[in-house]
């Protein structure tokens, strides 16, 4: 079970919305995409999101992050309604990114997670800001 006691503010998003947001993200030649089978999300406890070039398997160009699933069982709407938590304290790389710097392999996990998460959270904020009025009317 995911421990949420230490999280002050975080975003939650269902898979359908995340997939839609990731489809429109591009930055510095990098893309974001769902990289795991959503049917495995509940048993694994996470959805994997790729960040980099989906056609490139080179570890120098792509990092895969795990976003924890907060559902206990499959939601009535199917896998598109699986909900994930997005917060730097719970999102983790499957392996740290590595870089060549002066002929040495280096990593910078804080910079990587920031480069990965900031565009996602900005896109979620824009979505929330743009849909806020319509959402209130639906309630």
Low-confidence stretches: 132-139
Total separate domains: 1
How do the SSEs run, as a string of H and E? EHEEHEEEEEEH
What is the spatial order of strands in the main beta sheet?
Answer: 2-3-4-5-7
Please report the total strand number as a whole number: 9
DSSP strand (E) fraction?
A: 25-35%
Task: Give the integer mean of the pLDDT values.
Answer: 86
Helical percentage: 25-40%
Distance between the termini: 30 Å
User: What overall form do the CA principal axes indicate?
Assistant: globular
What is the alpha-carbon Rg in Å?
A: 16 Å
Give the oligomeric state of the chains in this entry, treating copies of one chain as homo and distinct chains as hetero.
single chain
Query: Major β-sheet, in short?
Result: 5 strands, antiparallel
The tally of helices reads 3
Structural class: alpha+beta
Give descriptors for this structure.
139 residues; alpha+beta; two-stranded antiparallel sheet; 3 helices; 26% strand; disordered C terminus
Characterization of the model:
The chain contains 3 helices and 9 strands. The chain is of the alpha+beta class and 139 residues long. It has a 5-stranded antiparallel β-sheet with strand order 2-3-4-5-7. The chain has a two-stranded antiparallel sheet with strand order 1-6. Strands 8-9 form a two-stranded antiparallel ribbon. It starts with 10 loop residues before the first strand and ends with a helix.
């Amino acid at each position: 079970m995911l421990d949420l006691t230490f999280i002050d503010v975080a975003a939650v998003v269902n898979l359908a919305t995340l997939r839609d947001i990731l489809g429109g993200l591009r930055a510095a030649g990098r893309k974001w995409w769902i990289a795991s089978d959503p049917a495995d999300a509940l048993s694994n406890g996470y959805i994997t999101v790729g960040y980099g070039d989906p056609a490139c398997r080179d570890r120098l160009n792509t990092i895969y992050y795990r976003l924890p699933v907060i559902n206990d069982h499959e939601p009535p709407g199917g896998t598109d309604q699986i909900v994930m938590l997005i917060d730097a304290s719970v999102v983790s790389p499957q392996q740290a990114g590595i870089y060549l710097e002066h002929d040495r392999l280096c990593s910078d996990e804080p910079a990587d997670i920031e480069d990965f998460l900031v565009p996602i959270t900005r896109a979620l904020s824009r979505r929330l800001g743009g849909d806020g009025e319509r959402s209130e009317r639906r309630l």
